Amino acid sequence: MRILIAEDDYVSRKLLFKLLSQYGECDMTVDGIETFEAFAIAHESGTPYDLLCLDIMMPKIDGLKALRAIRELENRKKVKDSKRCKVIMISALNETEIMFDSYKTEYEVYKTKPIDIDSIINAMKELKLLN
């Protein structure tokens, strides 16, 4: 499994890397532009990501805008829904149902910080990325 961790907070990024590297090859980015670029390069090279753990509040462009660009890229490449990258949104924000309802079709799971390892593992199981 190929995993992209998009997180500007050093501690959260390292925690996710330590957890997720047990399940696949992990790359890390620290802002929205770098995230989109890494995603596009992976697609162009024929090695797309299976999972994207994406922080919402990141520098340059936020995670929601990066995700919208990623989904547009997948649409342009005619990626089937079943083959689209699974996305776990992560944020310290807590009013998710109101604030991000219009983006719900763009990501599969939403988790709040602090990062709960068991919650991430369970989300990966729900997404059928783990047994």
UniProtKB/TrEMBL annotation:
<dbReference type="Pfam" id="PF00072">
    <property type="entry name" value="Response_reg"/>
</dbReference>
<dbReference type="InterPro" id="IPR011006">
    <property type="entry name" value="CheY-like_superfamily"/>
</dbReference>
<feature type="modified residue" description="4-aspartylphosphate">
    <location>
        <position position="55"/>
    </location>
</feature>
<feature type="domain" description="Response regulatory">
    <location>
        <begin position="2"/>
        <end position="128"/>
    </location>
</feature>
<keyword id="KW-0597">Phosphoprotein</keyword>
<comment type="function">
    <text>May play the central regulatory role in sporulation. It may be an element of the effector pathway responsible for the activation of sporulation genes in response to nutritional stress. Spo0A may act in concert with spo0H (a sigma factor) to control the expression of some genes that are critical to the sporulation process.</text>
</comment>
<dbReference type="InterPro" id="IPR001789">
    <property type="entry name" value="Sig_transdc_resp-reg_receiver"/>
</dbReference>
<protein>
    <recommendedName>
        <fullName>Stage 0 sporulation protein A homolog</fullName>
    </recommendedName>
</protein>
<dbReference type="InterPro" id="IPR050595">
    <property type="entry name" value="Bact_response_regulator"/>
</dbReference>
